[in-house]
Amino acid sequence: MNVREELFKNQDIKYKEFHSKLVPTIDCDKIIGVRIPQLRKIGKALTDDDFEWDYYEEVMLHGFYIGYAKLSYDERLSLLDAFVPKIDNWAVCDCVCSSLKFVNKNKAEFLEYLKKYMNSENEYEIRFALVMLMDYYIDDEYSDFAVDYFKNINSNYYYVNMAAAWALSVAFVKYREKVLPLIENNVLTKDIHNMTISKIRDSFRVDKETKAYLKTFRRTE
After folding, report:
1. For 30-42, what is the HEC assignment?
2. Is 0.85 topped by the overall pTM?
């Protein structure tokens, strides 16, 4: 498959214009304009990852390849070593994270691998760690570990703080008793605190009374 040719064959200019506004950290000229479902379809058809990294969609496809191809666990980690440093926007990060289902069969081992990104100073490497923990580790075995990491995020990066808040809101739905005290006791940084309240209040899985209660904890300083 000629990957770039396939991408331009599925180009949607109106979608390009719309999506470019959602990923402001990416030069519009680097976005072809291919919808995510079509990108996933192309990703599942890839037989190798021998193609360029120039366009936003090409980077996304490298990530999809890691998740969808028939590879060994070690091969996936080796490819992730090359892929994760290439992430420079929230969309590639989040879409690819949701595609790495192999983690479900290797949670303990992958958590050890993930720690190098948890301890990174790079904005999107930290976001990668946050979203991976949110997607695969908010469960009975690992939720304490995950929430402990989320609550200790102290960053000046918007996309890190937003991911931490998103992750905490997801954890709140499943483990309210672990997240609510963080809000009630002002444990989180102000930005993450307020973002978390907003994300929880946006959830359809949280009742109106709880949303009203959380609103009283919004911080102004």
Report:
1. HCCCCCHHHHHHH
2. yes
